[in-house]
Amino acid sequence: MPAAFTAQERARITEALLAAGYELFSTQGLRKASLEELVGPAGIAKSSFYQFFDSKEALYLELMLREAGSVKRRVIDQALRTTDDTREALRRFLRATLDELTTNTLWRRLTTHPEEMHAVARKLDPERAAAIGDNPATALAEFVTERQRDGGLIDADPAVVVGVLQAVLLVPLHADHLGDPAHRDRVLDLLIDIVTAGLTLTRERN
Questions:
Q1: Alpha carbon 140 to chain centroid distance?
Q2: What DSSP letter does each residue of 7-58 carry, written as one string?
Q3: What's the sign of the alpha-carbon dihedral 19, 122, 169, 79?
Q4: What pLDDT sits at residue 137?
Q5: 146: closest CA among 163, 132, 158, 134?
Q6: Taking a C-beta distance cutoff of 8 angstroms, is the pair 36, 45 a contact?
Q7: Domains of the chain
């Protein structure tokens, strides 16, 4: 018979599972993180895990949704959407996202291993998985389409424009190839200036 937990115990165990999941998924990924490692810090049996989450994927999704909301607020609401100037908006987005990737280990994992997000979505019911759609990538794609319609961005496939911006975000993950560490910040700043200038139309480059 499954163990009975008080409301206080359930709250503590849930947070312990989320904390363990954050650490393990960030460093090992979805596949390698074992159930034993997840339940250990919470002090519960493996069988009791399913009283809190239906699967490892469900735990991962909960973490993804928490991260997506907070990351979207920082890189979209507090950066991309804070100016009407398209070039400056993209600059702010890239710099805020680079900061996020430096400090947020789980979001960096999701950025570099998108297959894990897809694996989670495939195993969940459509309504729950659809919640992943409210994330920075979706908001960025909407911004690109909107600014193209308004004449602020070059006329290219929106997916390609988003891909160019995402390519900039992957550069710091290979920082060892950027030469002298003392120059890395200036390299990134110049790269951001060149990319955003190339994506925005002439009238917005003043």
A1: 12
A2: HHHHHHHHHHHHHHHHHHHHHT-TTT--HHHHHTTTT--GGGGGGT-SSHHH
A3: negative
A4: 85
A5: 158
A6: no
A7: 1-53 (1.10.10.60), 67-204 (1.10.357.10)
CB 153 within 8 A of CB 90: no
Strand partners, 181: none
**pLDDT grade, residue 50 (50/70/90)?**
very high
Specify whether the CB–CB gap between 109 and 131 falls below 8 A.
no
DSSP 75: I
Structure tokens at 29: 């990924």
Helix axis angle, 136-149 relative to 158-170, nearest 10°?
130
Measure the CA–CA gap between 150 and 124, rounded to whole angstroms.
37
> In terms of pLDDT, which residue wins out, 61 or 20?
20
Q: Residue 49's pLDDT band (boundaries 50, 70, 90)?
A: very high
Whether 81 and 90 have beta carbons less than 8 Å apart is answered as no
Q: For residue 91, what are the CA distances in angstroms to 11, 97, 201?
A: 40, 10, 14
| Distance separating alpha carbons of residues 144 and 162, to the nearest angstrom | 7
Q: At what angle do helices 114-122 and 105-112 cross, to 10 degrees?
A: 80
What is the reported pTM? Answer: 0.80
